Amino acid sequence: MDESNEIILQKSKRLTSVVWNYFERVRKADVCYAVCIQCNKKLSGSSNSGTTHLRNHLMRCLKRTNHDMSQLLTPKRKKKENPVTLATPISFDEGQQKDEYLRPKFDQEQHRRDEVVLSRGSGGRFSQERSQVDLARMIIMHGYPLAMVDHVGFKVFARNLQPLFEVVPNSTVEDSCMEIYMREKQRVQHTLNNLYGKINLSVEMWSSRDGANYVCLASHYIDEEWRLHRNVLNFITLDPSHTEDMLSEVIIRCLIEWRLESKLFAVTFDSFSVNEEIVLRIKDHMSQSSQILINGQLLELKSAAHLLSSLVQDCLEAMRDVIQKIRASVRYVKSSQSTQVRFNEIAQLAGINSHKLLVLDSLGNSNSTYVMLETVLEYKGAFCHLRDHDHAFDSSLTDEEWEWTRYVTSYLKLVFDIASDFSRNKFPTANVYFVEMCDFHIQLIEWCKNQDNFLSSLAANMKTKFDEYWNKCSLVLAIAAILDPRFKMKLVEYYYSKIYGSTALDRIKEVSNGVKELLDAYSMCSSIVGEDSSFSGSGLGRAMDTRDRLKGFDKFLRETSQNLNTTSDLDKYLSEPMFPRTGEFNILNYWKVHTPRYPVLSLLARDILGTPMSILAPDSTFNSGTPMIADSQSSLNPDIRQALFCAHDWLSTETEETLPLSRQYALPA
């Protein structure tokens, strides 16, 4: 055919189909053709012919030449108004592209791991390998089951979205997830090893429906820019025959694996009661490397939220028989519509204006039990009237049981309010806990004075458990409060006078001495940084130039003025006016600004404020038992389960849509 008479036509606005991105519209005489820019084949270009035949040709043509077909399913891009010319495909090295995508990058300014990218390479060509990595990241980030790649619905969706994409088997996705895990692990390892300051470790037990047990180990720290971080380090499957003392071995292995022995500041356990042998083994290992301990006081801490959850369970267990009667009462009222109507009429006659609905609680969810008790108390008058006038109602409470219910509900309300305060911040700093735990301590003392034997005995048991927590954590709580410039030592003096009475001065002196001893330890560590490069890595300083002829003089200066400088640093902070308690206050911003003024004290503040005083999700405070992993995760190989759990946590900081604290892998409450 003579092509000299062919005219390339400009594409009009009417040519809206995306297939025209791949064709030139030419005219010869009165006949219009569509010329494929890939193979130059001519097809009918008449407006009456439609575009189905063009699309079918492209699906075969592009697949044969390994070009991207995703544009066939996306809106047409705006074209320039000049005639369309043949485009030469831009080649690229797919292997190099994958390499760049998977290679660890440690530059914080250049590291952009979670950008939304298309699964195509340079020039718009489709990349199977890149798509597999994107699929693995999606599964990790959102907690999707690995088996989703075997689902028919997913295969149909993927095929329609990108026909070139070959759905890979489960094992291949696992390999991609492991690659991402190893890459992210190197990044986290690099960050921790070059961290400015110490690291805290939290230990939390998990379980599954099939009875398996797991331990989640996470690091907590404040970085050089005074930002609080939390990173899951390990999610280890415990052997079914494991004993409690094996937990210490797990923790020690974690410290060795991540090279944190010389950086560890404190370990926070989820349980209020931990086998002492576990702590002793960890202390023995830490004593070989750690230089900042006050008789081991700061090494072992307990989670405040777990303590409160345990106390809630104790209350509900003590009230078990009464709660059973309350459930029966609610069931009776809701047994029929006529009974419900009559109960509502009785409530109105009794002057009860509550709009709350009577609902039964959910087993295992103590929050719902608290709501049920609180609602029933508002209808007490109606239930008492029902007791006196309805002989079929046989589950009524006695006056004494109503009194117990009122007191216990007040206990639960206090715990609920404290948990709500904790939940205001995603990762609260340690200073926010002192006031709440002191108020709870004072209230426990008052509850123990109750004249009712049942209530006073319950309060005494709660206080015994609380005292065990308080003996372990009170010093860290108090130091964190002192490091809050809005309160300093005055807040400790105020609360200790209420808690300890005549012995308050001795207790306050213990806190004061504790701060000074700890600060002395920090001062010594900072003074030997120039001689110890390993401590330099922890960020407490930088090694001196070996050619500095005055290095000996600097050492002499540090040794002779060490105590004076430490004392003046702390005394200067305490003697200055307290920061006003008005408006928004960010304690980390305060210490970031005041680091030059209090160089040694700021080191202490960084590590104390970064200590996890609570490691339970705020919405889990009233849930009994340990958190449970989803069924789809419990059946996985231990290595891939850990990879998914940890990588999910590491990637979750990159997007607001992902749940924090790896809760994507937990069963709903």
Automatic annotation (TrEMBL):
Keyword DNA damage: no
Entries under SMART domains matching the protein: ZnF_BED
Residues in BED-type domain copies: 14-67
Any matching Pfam family: hAT-like_RNase-H
Subcellular location: Nucleus
Membrane-traversing stretches: none
Signal sequence annotation: none
Major place of residence: nucleus
Keywords linked to the UniProt accession: DNA-binding, Metal-binding, Nucleus, Transcription, Transcription regulation, Zinc, Zinc-finger
Assembly description: Homodimer.
Protein name per the record: Zinc finger BED domain-containing protein RICESLEEPER 1-like isoform X2
Native organism taxonomy: Eukaryota, Viridiplantae, Streptophyta, Embryophyta, Tracheophyta
Name of encoding gene: LOC104745758
